[in-house]
Each structure stands twice: as C-alpha cells, then as structure tokens.
Fold each of these.
Amino acid sequence: MSKYQHIKEEAYQANMELPKLNLVIFTFGNVSAVDRAEGVFAIKPSGVPYEDLTPDNMVIVDFAGETVEGKLRPSSDTKTHAVLYSKWDTIGGIVHTHSTYATAWAQSQRDIPIFGTTHADYNTVDIPCAPPMSDLMIQGNYEFQTGHQIINCLQEKGLNYKEVEMVLVGNHAPFTWGKTAAKAVHNSAVLEAIAHMALLTEQINPSAPRLKAALINKHYERKHGAGSYYGQ
Amino acid sequence: MSKYQHIKEEAYQANMELPKLNLVIFTFGNVSAVDRAEGVFAIKPSGVPYEDLTPDNMVIVDFAGETVEGKLRPSSDTKTHAVLYSKWDTIGGIVHTHSTYATAWAQSQRDIPIFGTTHADYNTVDIPCAPPMSDLMIQGNYEFQTGHQIINCLQEKGLNYKEVEMVLVGNHAPFTWGKTAAKAVHNSAVLEAIAHMALLTEQINPSAPRLKAALINKHYERKHGAGSYYGQ
Amino acid sequence: MSKYQHIKEEAYQANMELPKLNLVIFTFGNVSAVDRAEGVFAIKPSGVPYEDLTPDNMVIVDFAGETVEGKLRPSSDTKTHAVLYSKWDTIGGIVHTHSTYATAWAQSQRDIPIFGTTHADYNTVDIPCAPPMSDLMIQGNYEFQTGHQIINCLQEKGLNYKEVEMVLVGNHAPFTWGKTAAKAVHNSAVLEAIAHMALLTEQINPSAPRLKAALINKHYERKHGAGSYYGQ
Amino acid sequence: MSKYQHIKEEAYQANMELPKLNLVIFTFGNVSAVDRAEGVFAIKPSGVPYEDLTPDNMVIVDFAGETVEGKLRPSSDTKTHAVLYSKWDTIGGIVHTHSTYATAWAQSQRDIPIFGTTHADYNTVDIPCAPPMSDLMIQGNYEFQTGHQIINCLQEKGLNYKEVEMVLVGNHAPFTWGKTAAKAVHNSAVLEAIAHMALLTEQINPSAPRLKAALINKHYERKHGAGSYYGQ
C-alpha cells in the first residue's frame, strides 16, 4: 500500500462529490488533497471520467508539479495547485470546476457583490475575480502563472486566503480551497449557490444595494468569530 | 423515551423534507415543531448535515430560547423561532431556508408582486419583504430581533399571520410557518415556486399588471373561504 | 369492478406522469380522461397528493360537472374540463398544470411567439393566451366560465382545437388537451419546453424574428400533414 | 446477426445517452453512427421513445438516405445525416437535439460568442449559427438541404469540420459530430453547457468582451495541439 494512501483516499472521495453536487460534467474539474509533512499532494488524473476514478489512480505530485507516484498523467491544472500549496501554508485541499454560474461571473470579469447573509456567512467581501492574465503569462508557464495570478489578486485587494477561500479567474472559472479537500468542495458548492443568487438579485432589482456592514460583520462573526455560535 | 418524542419526530420528518424539495444544500435551513401545552419546541441542531439527523438529536427549547433537553446546540436561528411562537398563538411549525429564488427576492429587498392564481391560492397580497434591520437591532440580540422585525413587518402592513404564512427578511432569506411543521415546509416550497414564476413574469413582460381583485378573492376563497371547495 | 375502470386507469396513469415530468409540485395539476359513449370522464380527486392516488380514487363526472361515481370530491377545476369535453367532440383527455414557464407566460398575459421548429412541430401559430376573465365571469360560475373563456379565445383568434391543443389562461396557467389523456400530458410537457425556450430566445436577442412561413408549414406538415413522414 | 451489428450497437448506446444527459425529452433528437467501409450508417427510428429503443430497431441507411436494413422508418432528419457523412470524410457519428439553451441561441439566429476557456477547450471561434434556409430550399428536399446549409455555413466562415464539431441551424436547433457517435454526444452536452454560460455571461455583463487570442490559443492547444498535455 502506498505511503500516500490517506491523501489518495481523501482526494478520491472529494473528487467524487463534484458530479453529485452538479458542479461538473464529464471531466470538467479536479480536486487535490495535500500531505504537508511529505510535501506532496494527491490529484485527479487528467481527462479521466469520474466513474472510472479509484483512490489508486490518484496521482502524487510535489510542490514543483513533478509526479512522485502514479501511472497516469496528473490534471492539466496541477501546477496551479502546486503554486497555491507552496505559497499558502495552511490549506489542505483545492478544487477547480467550471460550474455554470460561477464560471459565468468569471467570464463576465466581475467580482460577485455581497448581497445577502448567505454570502456573509462565508465572506465579508465581494468574491474576487482576478483579471485575465497578460499574454506573456499565458504564453509562458500557463498553469503555474494561473496560481500566481490568484495569489496576486488576493494580495492586491488586501485579502487573506485564510478568510477568503474562493476566487474567480477572469475568462476562466473558479478555484476554491480549505483546510481539507472536503471543505474546499463545500466551498465550491456554496460559491455556485451565491453566484446564482447574485445574478437573480440583479435581475429582480438592478439597483439592489450591497449588504450593510453591520449584517456582514454579524453573520461572519456568528459563524467564524471568537464568540461564534454556529455548529457544534 | 422523551416526553417530547412527538415533536422531535415531527421536527425530524419536516427537516428531512427540505433537501428532498431542493430547498437547502448542506445545513442551510431549519424546521421546528411546537408543543403548546408544554411551552417548548423541537428544532434542528446547528450545523448538522441532514443525513446525520435523527429524531433523537432534535433539541428541545423553551420560548425564551433556552435549551430544555438535548445534547447538541440548537440552530443558530432558534431565538427567531422562539419569538414567533411566543407572539403568534396558533402556529405549530416554522421553517427557515435560503432557497434560491425566495432568497434572491429577499436580497433585492422587494415584496413579491401577486401576478397569478398560484400566488392567490395562498395569499391575497404581495408576499412581504421586511426591511433590513437597524444596526442597533443587529448588534444587539440579533436572532431575537429578527423575530421582532418579522412581526413588525406584518403589523405595519396590516397583515395577519394566520392568513399570510410567509415572509422575506430583507438581505437575508425567507421564513414560513403553518399549523404544523409539515404545512410550514409546504409553504416554503410554494413560496419558492411563486418567487421563481414572479421573476420570470417580469422578464417576459416588464409591465405585467398585478392580479385583479376579483381573481385574487375568488382563488383565495375557493381554497380558504367559508364556502371553500378545494380538497377533501 | 366499476364500468368506468378503463378511464379511471387512463386518468390515473396520466396524472402520475405529471410529477415525473416536473410539471407539478404537491397537488398543482390534474388530468382527466373521457368515455364519450357513456358521456362521463374520470378526473383526479381534489387536493390529494400524487403519491396517494390510485385508479380507484379517480372521480367519475358527467358533462354537467356532477359526480356520477366516487367517494372523493373531484378536482376544483372539474367544470372547466366538463365544458371543454361538452363543446369539443373529438378530445379524449385534458390536462391543467401550473408548470413554471408556461405559467409565467400566462401571468405575463402574452401569447408565446413562434420562434423555431420545436414550436412549429406542434403549432403553426403563436400559443394563444386568453385574456383574464371579466369580473362578472369570475364572480359567477368561475370554473365553468374558465372553459368558455378558453373556447372563446380560440374562436376569436380563428383557431381550431383539433390543431391547437394548448392554451394559456391569462393570470392563471396552461390547459392542454389531446386525443388521449397521455397525449394531453405530452402536450403539457412540450408547452413547458417551448415556453422556456421562447423566454431564453428573447433574452438572447430582444428583436428575434418570428419563424418564417415556409419553415412553419414545412415542420407542421412533415409531422401532421397528409404526406407526413414523422413517426411510424 | 446483422453485418451492421457494431454500428447498431454504437448508435443505440449513443442515443440512450441523450435523455440521461438531459438533452432531449420524448423523441426530440437522434444519433447516428457510420460504417465507412460499407458506406452506411445506423440511425434512430423516427418517433420511437428512448425507452423502447434496442440495438435491433436501429435503421441502416446509405449515403443517399435510402434504407438498407430495418423494419422501421428512419429519423425524419436522416437525409441531413446522409449529406454530412457523404461530404465530410472523417466523421464517425452525428447528433441532432433540441436541447434548451443551444436551441434558444439557434432561435435567436446568433453565433455563440467565445467568452471563456470552457468554450476555448473545444473551439477557437464563435460557435456558428447557419442562417435560416431560403424558401426554395425549405420547399424542396428539406432535410437534404439542411445538410447543405450546414456545410455552406462552415465554408463561408472559413471553418473546418475537423476542428469545429458543432453548429446551430438558425430557427431550428443544434447539430454536432465527431470521430465516434459517443464523441458527437459529448459535443452536444458541451455545446449545451457553453450555450447556457454564454447567455448568463451577457446577463451579468452586457459588454463582456470576447476571450483574448492568447487564451483561445493556449486552451485549444493544450487540449488539441501537437504538444497537448490534456488527458492520458
């Protein structure tokens, strides 16, 4: 049995949630799970349908994006995952999907405005949309640069990856992360729900105001603050 | 066996309907069922996924919002339920969800206009949207004040909770109620359908008129009036 | 065994298709099937959930809307069915739903424009929307008058119920019919699909033209004309 | 056993995917699979519900559209398939559906703009919409002419059927193709997803720009280029 069996299992289970949550069709998405002690992560093999996945065909990759174990080629987005794990110390899992509503916002190149408490339960700010990458970045090491584009976007907006666990890459699609692969998947489904409701909100009331500060703070604090009283 | 077993069962069954009716994902919603004689209600525990619910992990709470029986922390919205039960004598169940279309209207801070007989079968008026709460109310006892905001909204609009069994809380999401927890869940699903159709109606015809009085009265009366002839 | 067993079975089977085709929630809809020789039809009982239906609890009603056999009260829309059967000699089944997109068009009080061949496979004209009824008609024998409103609408637009098997009742919802109850259900599902696509078409291109005459005729003729070559 | 058993099986399997992928209701669609050596293709029989299909009731047709084997009448769109197989040497399967979003774009008579990398993973250009056919073409050999309309559309836009495997026929609906029937079905599902996201993108940002050239090339090349690194 592989010494990476635990993250292969974790990545496998998390990948299998994507079609169940209607976040992907065919092979449109990937999840990884990291082992910080070993400095590697397990990720979906490229282009393999979800029904053919097993824990054993997850690919083990290091933070430079090189395969450490596994017979299949890893996801084409592997280097983006590698960069995020390498720069952000505390995340345990990463998800990339082309889910319908979040991708539409990414294609629109707009941040998703914070319109309600569903959003505020997860973020105190608009969900950031990184601008499309420069031609130089695209023509270079593209997936590697995608990771840097995400990191730069949060930095320029003064956001902390420990608090904001989701981003749109302009013209492309969403990435989410979290303490575990399962939490990163959870965040992808929440992002899709928020993206859908934000579009509808603007359709119902084109001048709908952003959520007021008192509600933003209250909802985030009751779920994430020092005196939080949500959950067990 | 608990002396509250009957409301634990009722609350459990009603909570389990929410994901089946596509009104919630993950833990986004809660249902309670009241025992008027005992002055308590059973409510979903906070942050527990629906697949892990059992009748036994429902939490028994009194009308001041204090836990009477149960090992888990009750829903973070418990005090809102407590206020509504304490002020409204005849309701037997309450539901809170973040269902997609009803929440989008709440985020838009608009009442849902009465456009058709589907709406009139349930309400003779626009579905009210309570304004977002004042900063003072939010920073105080938030969930308790949410209950008061709902009660005030109906009062100011001259509406009777026995006839209008659904409300939107501005920037937040819907609450519904009814004679039983099952009826309150039914109302949540109906509200979601009405919210969806109202948005589509405005998209198809931005100057669609509200339903005329004769149709409003006819449909409500045939379902709820003295000479009603709907149902068995 | 009832002498009406065959239409009870037919009505039962057709009613059970409505939730499977996502055309109804709860008790929002009803189907009937007629026996022309006996001058009666079988219809869903009022307010009974689909999961509780059986062939035996279908109600047998004559063309005056009076119950001939059955312990339960028939659908509240029974008199509308009775009028249509009595005026239109060749129809064998009728369906009423509050399906989402068709109902939104009814609430918008607009005919559904013919934008494509999907529509033309079923109708050569816009799907008619009957105007809301006069207050006098509503306050009188409402469901009976609804039937007359439908008949008048087709007459005024010069349409033949043998060719146009679907209508919207303004501010209310769709009715469809056909040679059998199953065909009437089929028409309800097709209407819902056409209603959805017509809304999207206007959103994508607000000045989308109606389908040209040559295509309307070609598609309708290949499916319904003397030289039809669709189906077996 | 038929000498065409392999394409009957292939066409049957591919047809059965259409309802599973929510691309058709009732009999709204058809798939064919070709045997180049024999100069024939297997196609769905006309108007037969998917649940009644078997490999054996697929119809074998030659490139002139004449039935070679089979008791049932072939799909009414058979001559369109025949023309495409006869003109385009390397395609192995063809799909026609009336899927909701792709059909709405066809009804709108607009090409689908390339807004993101999901689109670029499949095409470097807007998805073409052929203009509605001339009255002469419609009144003549309609389905045969539909095939020519598709071929002319690609030719006039300078597109190669080996690279662009999907088209909208104005006022009608989409056609897709591929090296196998399964790949053609895959393309139909992808087209539907792209069509949905493009509509949402324009709703979120009416002035959303088309995808920049560097991203178009990068995404297409990494999946289809000489140095492709997507898949196994």
Note: Chain B has one domain: 5-224.
Amino acid sequence: MRLTPATELEYRCSTLQKYMIEASIDAVIIIQNADLFYFTGTIQSGNLYIPAQGQPLYMVRKDWGRARMESGLRDVVPFRSMKDIPGVLADHGYAVPQRIGFELDVLPVNFFDRYRQVFSEAEYVDATPLIRKVRMIKSHYEIHLMQDAADQVDKVYRRVHEVLRVGMTDLDLAAELEFIARKNGHQGLVRMRGFNSELLFGHVFSGTDSAVPSYSDTPLGGLGCTPSFGQGAGLKRIEANEPLIVDFAGCVDGYLVDQTRVFAIGGLSERLCKGYDDMLKVQERMKELVQPGTPWGVVYDECLSLAERMGYADAFMGGSGSQVSFIGHGLGIEIDEYPFIARGFHSMTLEVGMAFAFEPKLVFPGEGAVGIENTFYISNEGLKQLTHSNEKISILMP
Amino acid sequence: MRLTPATELEYRCSTLQKYMIEASIDAVIIIQNADLFYFTGTIQSGNLYIPAQGQPLYMVRKDWGRARMESGLRDVVPFRSMKDIPGVLADHGYAVPQRIGFELDVLPVNFFDRYRQVFSEAEYVDATPLIRKVRMIKSHYEIHLMQDAADQVDKVYRRVHEVLRVGMTDLDLAAELEFIARKNGHQGLVRMRGFNSELLFGHVFSGTDSAVPSYSDTPLGGLGCTPSFGQGAGLKRIEANEPLIVDFAGCVDGYLVDQTRVFAIGGLSERLCKGYDDMLKVQERMKELVQPGTPWGVVYDECLSLAERMGYADAFMGGSGSQVSFIGHGLGIEIDEYPFIARGFHSMTLEVGMAFAFEPKLVFPGEGAVGIENTFYISNEGLKQLTHSNEKISILMP
C-alpha cells in the first residue's frame, strides 16, 4: 500500500492551476472520489478547493484524521456543512471566487444546487475537461503502479490455465479469477466516470454468450447472471471448441490496466483464428500510428478502415447494430479517461505520458467473440506496452 | 435468473402515476439503472417515459433487442439521440409535457442540461422522492428475492467457519467470502444511490481495523487495502481473541439483504461480549417499536436513547467523532432506500411492505467493533426477519 507522494500532488495541482489561469477560472471545487484521490491522495469525504494561485485547501467532513494521515497536502481542515465553506475559505485568506469550476459531468443536479446557494453570486463552468487534461498525462509514479497492476492481471491470466474446465459456468470461472485478483490486492472496485456506467472486474464469457450485446458502452457485453446487471459472466457452461474471453482490469493502489486474452479448450474454427490474427494486425497498425502529435481520431479512423478492408465492417467492435465508436480508451484511476481512441476526436493529439487500452475485437453472433486488449504508455522512447501476458490464443487440452 | 413479471411492472407504474397526479407532474423520465430495473425489469440504456396517465414508453438506445426480451413493458422502442425524444413521444400520441420529473439526486448537471434543451419550455421537478415512495413498499415477489438473498448470505456466513484461521488477512477472508457469494449467483455489484457512495460486497475486518473510521456513511469503516478505496478489508492479519466483523450484502436477481455477524478465534473480552449482548437488546427494542404508523425517527430516537442509557454515547454507531446519524436503512435494489431509521425523520411513518436493515453497532477504538445487523420486513402479520444466520457470537477454536 502506497501513499501518494506530496511532490506528485504538488505537480498535479500546479498543472491544473496552469489550465485554470488559461480558462480564467478562479477556483475549482473537487468532490468526486476519483478526482479527490488524484489531487489529495485519499478519498475522505470533503471538498478540495483549488485556487488559481496558491495552496489547495482540503476541507474534510469524514474522516479528518484519516485525511491528514493519507494526504500529502499541507492544508487539511475539518468542516461540517457546505454552508460553512465561504467562512472556512475566508479564515484561510482566500478571496471570494467569481468564476468556479465544478465536475459538472458527475455532480448531481441537487448537489450542484446547494453549491449555487453557497456561492450565489458566482459564475459556474465545467472543470472536468481541464481535470481530464491533467489526469491524462501519467507520471513515472503512476506508470509504476500500472506496471504492478499489469503483473496482477498476468496472475489472473495464468490462473485461467489452472482452473478452466469444460462444464464450469462463465460465472464459476469469473469467481475464481476475481478471487485471485483480490488475493493479490485488487481493491475490487473498478471506477468508471460515465453516468450509469458500471463494471465489475471485467468480462469473462464464452461462446455465444461472448457475442451477446449489452447496455454497457463496450464492444462485448455478455448476458450477466441477472437482467439487473446484464453484462459479463452468466450461467452459460463452457464447452470445448468455443472462444473464451477474459477481459480483466487489474488494479493496484487505485490504478488500473485492462487486458483481454482468448482461450479455448480443444481449438477454434478457422474463421475465429483468422479473426484473432487480424485483430493482432490492427494492434500492429495502431503501434505504427501512435506517436506524439497524432490525433486520437486518426488512430481510430485508420484502424477501423483496416478492419473494414479485412472484411469486418459488421463484426468490428460489436455485433451488427451494437457496434461502439471507439477502439481504445485512456485509463488510470478510472477506466474511461482521456485519450479516447474514438470516432471524431481529431482536434486532440497523443502526447508523451498518455496511457491507454487498445482493444480491437470481433463479434460473430451465434458463434462468439475474439480479440485482444493491451494497455500501452507513450514514453519518451516511444510506445511501451504495460500488459504482458502471452498474446497467442491459449489452446488448452480437453 | 428471474424476469420481473409484467404485472409487477404495471403495479409499480400505476403507483407512481398516482403520486404524480397528486404532485401535478405530467411525466417522469427515468434513466438511472436502479430505477430502470425497478420500472422496466432491465437496465438496457435508454429513457423510460412515464406519463401521468396511460402506458409507459421505454425508448432504448442499447440494446433494444435485449430490452424487448427482458422487459415486460408493452411499448419498447428504439431511439438514437436525446433530441429524438419529442418526435418519438409525438409518434406515440403523447402530449408535450409541461411539468417533468427527473431523478435530480443522481442526474449529473451536464446530462440534465441536455434534457433542458430538448424540453426547453418545461418546468422541472425532482421525481426521486416519489420514486423512493413507490420503491419502499415491497411486493411479495420482491420479498421472495430478498429471502433468496438471505439464504445466499447465510452460505457466506457458514463459509467463515470453514476458512477462518489465525494469520490470514482480512482481505484473504473477504476474497474467500466474495468467492462463495459469486458462486451462489451474487451479481458482484452492490448498488448505492448516494453520490460518491461506493461499496463492495460489504465489510470484513478484525480487531483494531474494525474500529477505523472511513469516508463512507457507515457506522464501521475499515482501512481497506489502499487509500484509493479506504474502506472494508485491508491487510491486517487476523489474531486470536479479537472481534471479526462480517458485514455482508447478499444479492439475488438484483435484490439485496444486509447482515452482520461477529466471530472470534478463542474468545472476546467481557466488554465486547457485553457490548454485543447490549446491541441485541437494542435490536429487541426496535422490534417492540416497529409497527405501521411509527415514525422512522422515533425508532431511531428510542434506540439511540437506550444505547446512551447503557453507557454507549461515545461508541454507538461509530467511534467518537465519526458517529453516523442512523441505525437502519431501507434496502432492495439499492442499499440506501427508504425508510431511513435515522435522526430527524419524524414526518414519515413505517408501513406494511417496508424492508429495512437494522444495525446497532459499537466501536471501541484500539480494540475493535461489535454489533449485529439483520434485514427485516413489515408484513401484514407484523415484523418478519429475513436474514437468519445464528445470532450468537461465533467462537471458533484457535
């Protein structure tokens, strides 16, 4: 268990402040857990007040003692009620902010209305695009955590070889893999920022179930074990000669990596094997395209175009009618961070320090899905791959 | 795996419509997963439009085919974009709503702004209090699901007896119990409605770690395995002669129960044993108080008063400085539903059909926590207890 170094927090805060000044924002108030963890090193309940210039002030409702222990910030103070905020700010010498940034993509309406009463004269802007811009560039410290998460997910991958048997359900296998992840320190929670977005450790499903679309914004969906959470592993029994997808998010000290591998007991049809090899080619194409300065959308367009030329217009990134408009996604504390390797993102470019998962996948309804996913990092020396499990389809004996 | 019967959906919808007419609301638009599941039987991504009179219309973005299979609603139609909503409504003969209810406690600001553009002439109200009122009265169907969840959590409880050993970490034990829950169909996700509220299967922690407060709005917190998710099981090794808390939420077909039991290897101090027995007395006091017509806050006040008279003013429902202002909470699809057995709720009364967890607990910093939690249901024949694991402290041999 690591505590985020104070120097990390200082750098993150000063980077946000640079963007705030460019956007003429006087102060940003951060309350969402993922952002709190990034800027304070903890998620103790409270408000992090970041002025455009000067020290951040972390006002903590519960638990203040823990916040002081876990956060490297200098100013961590107790507070009780939202309406105390202006007084606490004045006590610490902060001017009344005129233009305040909030996390408007996640902040519920009722919650926001209470802030509007507290700062009734202020103008409000969405701070999330700025926060996303700071968070999308990973430090060496963050990459080290993600390397540990890659080792964890490799243990999960290796466990599949030990426990996979014909006749077990997808849910049985998922339970085994989640167990290994937890034993290796996975926090259990995989954070997604999008409203209504939910994800367990990942998706483990076989054969026809791997081709079932779901409500989630993912290329593969899965039936799940109940319509109340209709994604991921369900009660289908694993058979020989069908694809088994293990799409699993490792998580160490709050940082995620995402990896997908395909297994089969016996073997797979020529169509699926060829499809898998072709997805490896899409991954190779991505590696050629990715460099600082490349627009996110160009990587998407070029890789989609390759998949279409290979004959997968109706199967790439989801079954026909359920295809998603991305092939990759940034990740770190949340699994849906910048950059988005997605349709339309032509004005934002790849930069050194970005980490992203890339997941070219094919869905053949009635047969199953194949594909690969790895987590990458753009270093000063070029693209580095963080997840490192064997990339061949794992064929197990029946 | 059950599909919600259409008759259930019809009754739920008509009950909401009754409240809508009382509140002069023309239409409610439901999008949050828990509410979607309750009113449609699935969570496929979309908008459920409920007019004050007439049939609900479920407009589904992804995946429409699954929504048609999983939902017992009559009108399930595909749609692509929020701005198509007025056209789809007109096509189905609905008048333009003047006063619309949204789930304003969970709907993010940016999302809401897009609805305001679509319905630019309308007035907006918070529909969540009405939705909560409908959801707080459970049907027999819902109680049956919760009975199954109670059986599941009893299996988890029994598993503790098989695997608990001196020297294993709290996280090791949590992983074992989560494994059993998943093998028995637990969906993995425990839904909480509150913003920033997060919960894994529950809280498993021992000795001093069980007395660590956290950011979560729960009587016990726990250190967790990382400050990025600082609650629940951490890396502390379980020793003899200290309390082990297993607070676990069972979940079957989307419905939750909540149960807490105390274990110890060897034995426990007289103070902890007496504290536990006293919490059983608080539970008995609750049973005397609960009947249709009793205000929620009266149950809270009377039980708090009893705990204070027994000398636990500083230990009841959290350690000094971290005490929460509730002793029980409604539950069903989410773990924070109506009724709240909490401070101040004097205008709302208990009714037949309500289900709630009641969890009197004591925290002794530096030593550990003890307490009990069960899930109850107010039937026509009085209070029934759903969770049924043995209520004695489980003392295991070293």
Note: The two ends of chain B are 40 Å apart (CA to CA).
